[in-house]
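for the writeup, i need someone to sanity check this before i put it in the appendix. the sequnce is what the collaborator sent (i think, or maybe the updated version? ugh). structure was predicted straight from it, no edits. if anything looks off just tell me and ill rerun, i have time this weekend
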Amino acid sequence: MPIELHCHSTASDGDCTPTEIVDRALALGITSLALTDHDTVDGVPEALDAAREHSLRVIPAVELSCHFEGREVHLLGYFVEHRDPDFLELLKQMRAERRERIHQILEKLKAVGIELSFEAVEEQASGKALGRPHVARALVAADHCESVGQAFDIYLGNHGPAYVGRNQLSLEEGIEAIRKVGGVSVIAHPGTCRDWPRVERMIQLPVDGIEVWHPSHKKADRKRAKRLGGRYGKILTGGSDFHGPRGDYHEMGTSQVTERVVARLREVAVV
């Protein structure tokens, strides 16, 4: 049966509410679902409630934005205690940093001749965890770009004129924060780093797993991630990174991950 270990709702930058995510998972026959919104667990209670009368298991999870060696990296956390007050305060601080980042991005856009208000960006977000996709959608809504992809290609991508990095949380701190709330940490989509020696240095940290199967990964990326994970005894995971049925999306439950991986994650979480 299919499972889904990487998806986003309107609590961060997804198009579907947590309830809609659960409904879609049920329609697809998914047996385990991890809601991994960016720097927030606000959608987890709703997802748990929506799945309560069904056999679907909802895994409380999160995707933290961290930095390692001066560059951004994402860290997935599974089976986290989503009600822990210290963890919630950390996420609140990270979301505040996200909002400041949006202001900086808007200043950079202004410098290249594009006027866009903070309110216009907020209108594109249902939750409090603002991110670059919301800026991209605002650019499209204001007719500055034809698509979200174009907005990233021209302005918001890692090498674009309006790119602003983040430095709120180190990868080491992110791993420890997830551990403190009983969670299991997994490096997300390592192939997007385009630097496998750097990924190997990350995997040598006390992280529990590495995401092998991801839509952005080519066959060579999957092989490298799998080889590194095996070399260092890490759990091999994967997911669709579903953000909603828009454009060139990847459907939930399409990775090669099985319930055996969920069982392994759970086993590590309760140790």
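The longest helix spans residues 85-111. Residues 95-156 form a domain with the DNA polymerase; domain 1 fold (CATH 1.10.150.650).
thx in advance!!
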